[in-house]
Amino acid sequence: MAAIEPLNDTERAEALDGLAEWDYDDSRDAITRTIVFSDFVEAFGFMTQVAMLAEKADHHPEWKNVYNRVDILLTTHDAGGLSERDIELAEAIDGVLGED
Question: Which N-terminal stretch is annotated as signal sequence (predicted)?
Answer without folding.
Answer: none
